[in-house]
Specification:
Number of helices: 9
Shape: globular
Number of strands: 22
Helix content: 10-25%
CATH architecture of the largest domain: 3-Layer(aba) Sandwich
CATH superfamily of the largest domain: Peptidase S8/S53 domain
Structural class: alpha/beta
Radius of gyration: 20 Å
CATH topology of the largest domain: Rossmann fold
Distance between the termini: 35 Å
Strand order of the largest sheet: 8-11-7-14-16-17-18
Strand content: 15-25%
CATH class of the largest domain: Alpha Beta
Largest sheet: 7 strands, parallel
């Protein structure tokens, strides 16, 4: 079970040893130093630092002091939906990431600074066994409110998405990335055989890096969260995974405070991999993948961050009239999101209550009780499905 601190407030200067990943103490959910160090290179741009402050006055103080010490402002963005200001700054040549973080948090004590970590799709490697496995009713359930997703772009013109109302916004940096991954996730969230009346808010955050990789910076994720909060979205699916980042931790904490429940894929880096984020944050529902025989997906990340399992191996999807198969924890997460979206007892509930509700209505797999492989077990369809 994940542990939650009593509160998490804006915090003082971090120790340099942890500066790339986060601060020690109770304010944030920091992983061990060895994991922080291992993730240090997973950044969008090694010369960029990102800072969050609570208001424009703090932003002005930070920017004035930062410029005096050689930082260059790349962009300032108001994250109105989260009640924060975000600054992207270029690091002076003499400083590395830890030094830049220490400098910014010294200049403005209310600032939370961190490197711009990269988050990548928990890539697909789509069978109609899935709905039967979790006992989904033959008649679709009704979505009780809008559903948000943070992913690659979505091809809203696909005939499989014609029954849904889709609102899109782009926050990706770099060259446009492909839309396959996001379209797969959207087709599961908005499948009219499973959910009716779906309004989908799709935030595209994944672009092509200079290295030719699909990735999203933490700044893009924060802008997407802010946009979704501003649209009144209270349930969000994230099928991306990456390192711990205290800025993302802070942003999701704010999103939860605004009434948002976030469901995320635990990642496809293998059983021995360290926890991937945001799924490993305590206020996020972490989802792993199983196959038709209820066996765990061989590449799923394991650990106490796993809350529940859902179908995610060789799931049959129909995209643009073609039948395709997809595999991964990214594919499992939308089943859990759809299940929450149609359950009057869980929709619009805080993460702790959602987690407890899912635990009480899942089929236990593996070792008795919650375990690091399957979490509480295989998610089951809601017993009080909202009628179409």
């Amino acid at each position: 079970m994940k542990h939650r601190s009593a509160y998490r407030a804006l915090f003082p200067l971090c120790l340099a040893a942890l500066a790339l990943g986060g601060c020690a103490g109770d304010s944030l959910q920091v992983p061990p130093p060895a994991q922080v160090a291992a993730d240090a290179a997973e950044v969008v741009d090694p010369r960029e630092i990102v800072a969050l402050v609570p208001d424009r006055a703090a932003a002005a103080r930070l920017l004035s002091g930062a410029r005096a010490e050689g930082f260059t402002l790349r962009e300032q963005t108001a994250l109105a939906g989260l009640g924060l200001e975000m600054l992207r700054l270029e690091i002076p040549g003499a400083l590395g990431g830890p030094g830049a973080i220490a400098a910014l948090e010294r200049i403005e004590p209310l600032a939370v600074a961190g490197v711009n970590h990269a988050y990548r799709p928990a890539a697909s490697h789509a069978l109609e066994y899935a709905d039967a496995l979790i006992g989904w009713p033959a008649v679709p359930c009704r979505a009780l409110g809008p559903i948000g997703m943070i992913d690659t772009g979505v091809d809203a013109g696909l005939p499989e998405l014609s029954a849904a109302v889709i609102h899109s916004a782009g926050f990706a940096r770099g060259a446009p990335a492909g839309r396959l991954h996001g379209s797969e996730v959207a087709s599961l969230l908005a499948d009219p055989r499973r959910l009716s009346g779906v309004t989908l808010y799709a935030a595209s955050v994944v672009g092509m890096s200079a290295r030719g990789e699909q990735e999203a910076g933490v700044d893009s994720l924060l802008e997407a969260l802010s946009w979704l909060a501003g649209q009144g979205v209270r349930l969000v699916n994230i099928s991306l995974a990456g390192p711990y980042n205290k800025l993302l931790d802070r942003g999701i904490d704010r999103a939860e405070a605004h009434g948002m429940t976030i469901v995320a894929a635990v990642g496809n880096d293998g059983a021995g991999a360290p926890p991937r984020y945001p799924a490993a944050l305590e206020n996020v529902i972490g989802v792993t993948a199983v196959d038709a025989d209820r066996a765990i997906y061989r590449d799923a990340v394991q650990g106490r961050q796993v809350d529940v399992a859902a179908p995610g191996v060789d799931v049959l999807l129909k995209l643009d009239g073609r039948m395709v198969f997809a595999t991964g924890t990214s594919i499992a997460a939308p089943f859990v999101t759809a299940r929450i979206a149609s359950d009057p007892g869980l929709y619009d509930a805080p993460a702790a209550r959602v987690r407890a509700g899912l635990r009480g209505l899942s089929d236990d797999l593996g070792a008795p009780g919650p375990d690091p492989v399957f979490g509480a077990g295989l998610v089951k369809a809601p017993p009080r499905c909202a009628a179409p």
